[in-house]
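Example record

The entry below shows one chain as it appears in the dataset: sequence first, then structure tokens.
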Amino acid sequence: MYLKTDGLVLRATEYKDNDSILTVLTKEHGLMTLKARGIRRNASRLKSACQLLAYSEFTVNEVRGFDTIYEASPIEMFVELRSDIELLALSSYFAQVAEVLSQEDSPDPAILSLTLNALYALCKLNKPQELVKAAFELRAACHAGFLPDLQSCPVCGNPAPDRFAVSGGSAVCSTCTGVEGLRLPMSISVLTAMRYIVSCDAKKLFAFDLIGSSRKELADIAETYLVTQLERGFYTLDFYKSLKLI
């Protein structure tokens, strides 16, 4: 029985001589592990649709215990990624986060939409990498169940606190005591941006801007918050950051 689904290729692993095993995030079935036969041959008709970070329509059939791709047609290739190593590295980080937050046989259209929208913002809208990365990370943390408390300082009730407590995920005042762990600087413009990111419509997630030092403030908070709450690192993030140092 053939199954048809749209999905984003998050990871591709070489298998045997010319095959690959793809990890694909789909609309209807969550993560799927798919065998792509012969796609490492130059003449393969499946090659383009099965590339890393290609969003494609897949027709799948079970062959000898493997969910195997029978047909594949690209929907969006994000070709801009193929010629920019920084964009490719950052997008690969988004893909790894999406894989960590997804499960097999568990549809999760929100995380797929978030990842696709982030890739679109980078490739088609030419949004600043720093802002796209921060918005993706903060929204991904919310999706994972770590919605930060940004309404007011939990100690004194100040509606415009100037620090972000990473472990507790709350906006606090630098002068208030009783809040443990790392507290990162947070200007009012960054606080406003964070409130927007966690609450806005998904389609408008990247419709904001910050300038100057506020961009780095937001970037530091979002990255630190996500990796702290997920209690893990990402090799793709390490690689992306190494490129920024060159």
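Notes for this example: Helices lie at 85-100, 109-123, 129-143, 188-199, 213-230, 235-244. Strands lie at 3-15, 19-26, 30-36, 55-63, 66-76, 163-165, 170-172, 183-185.
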